[in-house]
Specification:
- By secondary structure, this protein is mostly helical.
- The protein has 2 domains: 30 residues, no CATH class; 51 residues.
- The protein has 3 helices and no strands.
- The radius of gyration is 30 Å and the shape is elongated.
Length: 109
Amino acid sequence: MAPASLYVTDSYYVSALGGTGRANHAWVVIDGPKLPEAVKPALEAQFEQANLSVTSIKTVSDERSFVDFHFNIMVVPLGLAAVMLALVGGLGLMGTMSTNVLERQRRSA
C-alpha cells in the first residue's frame, strides 16, 4: 500500500528536476475559530496568485479519516472473526456440558 519510492543522489535529483529550492510539503497552522475546510480554498487561491503549483491540500482531519478507514479494514474482519470464534467455542462448551449432565443423570437413575 506504500507508494513507489526511488532513492537518488542530490546531484542527480538537481539535474533531473532542473534546480533546487522546491518544497514537498508546507504545514499551515490556523489561529482562531476558522475551520480548516473553509481555509483550503483561500489558501489554494493564494498559492495560485503567487504562481505556485499545488498538487493537493489536505487537512489533518482528512489524513485522520484516511488512516481510520484503512485501520477499520483490519479491525472489522478481526472483530467478526473473534465473534465467530466465541460462538463456536460457546457451542462446543454447551455440547460438552450437556453431555456431562446427561451422563450424570443416567448414572444416578
